[in-house]
Write a structure and sequence with these properties.
With 331 residues, the protein is α/β, with parallel strands linked by helices. It has helices at 3-26, 29-32, 50-66, 81-88, 102-111, 147-156, 171-183, 195-203, 214-222, 246-249, 270-285, 287-295, 305-325, and strands at residues 39-43, 70-74, 96-101, 123-139, 162-165, 188-191, 209-213, 226-231, 257-265, 299-300.
């Protein structure tokens, strides 16, 4: 081999290597290695409630799957509007996820005529992990032991009883307002900044009743701090088999089960969304996660991406129509 031939081959090899390097550097960083930095999960409610419970559990397990920190950021305000809007407007790079629920994604569109985000257009579901019923609790010294008796008293004394919520437009607010409307009674709404503040006044006897997600409500019910009057799902809960559903009480034909999961901003690259969807599915299917959800009174979910989108759209359509028909306002 001549010196010129060797030199030519070396030059060709160097040129090919340089082209490979340039091609690699032209690929977006997210596509090279995802994730290569910590992720953020936006929880649109304060610590302590159902959003926070699900968000922290999934974030902890997803962090192990991705080998990157997954940091929970609580962004409460205006019910769930502020945090949800923050996530909707985040960079669509896969590093910001939202804890989405029936409250912020399916109920809000019917409550707010000028919602700053579109639940179906601005978000892409990663996966739904669990669905929970709500439990209607009464302060322990309230002189009623059933929803039927409470409604009878409210009819005789309109505007005398009070009900708490985690904020205007929250799931607790809308579910309760729908129930009182269908039952034909008037109770005074007392909104709080999150579930924990509502519990303080419920336990202190300063508010009469409060609907909250069954996993967080169960702690207070089991401790004897409050009385459980009804649950909002289609069936009784295994943890509280003596507590009837709303429909069973005969007060109203009303059911609501709140699902929770992770959502991404729309336009997130398909490969990034697919990767997160695959890893979250492993988390959701883990026996210990399923056990935690079941012990907390939840119904673990295992839905395909198509079924997830269909469920979200169904509830957006259903609750938008219902809240507008009932003329429920965020106040």
């Amino acid at each position: 081999m001549t010196r010129h031939t060797l030199k030519g081959r070396l030059s060709l090899a160097l040129a090919q290597t340089l082209l490979m390097v340039l091609a690699w550097t032209a690929i977006p960083a997210a596509a090279q290695v995802f994730p290569n930095k910590p992720l953020k999960v936006v929880v649109p409610q304060p610590p302590g409630g159902g959003f926070d419970f699900v968000g922290r559990l999934l974030a902890d397990r997803l962090s192990k799957q991705l080998a990157q920190p997954v940091v929970v950021e609580n962004r409460p305000g205006s019910g769930t509007l502020i945090g949800t809007d923050v996530a909707a407007k985040a960079a669509p790079d896969g590093y910001t996820l939202l804890v989405g629920s029936i409250s912020n994604l399916a109920i809000n569109p019917g409550l707010y005529r000028n919602l700053p985000y579109d639940s179906l257009r601005d978000f892409e579901p990663v996966g739904l992990a669990v669905a929970y019923s709500y439990t209607l609790m009464a302060r322990k010294d309230l002189p009623f032991n059933s929803l039927k008796d409470l409604v009878a008293n409210a009819k005789a004394n309109p505007g005398k009883l009070t009900y708490a919520s985690a904020g205007n437009g929250s799931g607790q607010h809308v579910l309760a307002a729908a129930l009182w409307h269908l039952a034909g009674v008037e109770l005074v709404h007392v909104p709080y900044r999150g579930a924990q503040a509502a519990y303080q006044d419920l336990l202190g006897g300063r508010v009469d009743v409060f609907f909250d997600l069954s996993p967080t409500a169960r702690v207070q019910v089991d401790a004897g701090n409050v009385k459980a009057l009804a649950v909002s799902g289609s069936a009784r809960l295994a943890g509280h088999p003596a507590v009837p559903t709303i429909t069973e009480t005969g007060v109203a034909a009303l059911e609501l089960e709140s699902w929770f999961g992770f959502f991404l901003p729309a336009k997130t690259p398909a490969d990034v969304a697919s990767h997160l969807r695959t890893e979250l599915a492993k988390v959701i299917a883990a026996p210990d996660v399923i056990d935690i959800f079941r012990k907390a009174g939840g119904r673990p979910l295992a839905l395909s991406p198509a079924d997830t989108r269909a469920l979200v759209k169904r509830d957006v359509d259903r609750w938008t129509q219902l809240t507008r028909e009932l003329d429920i306002k965020p106040e």
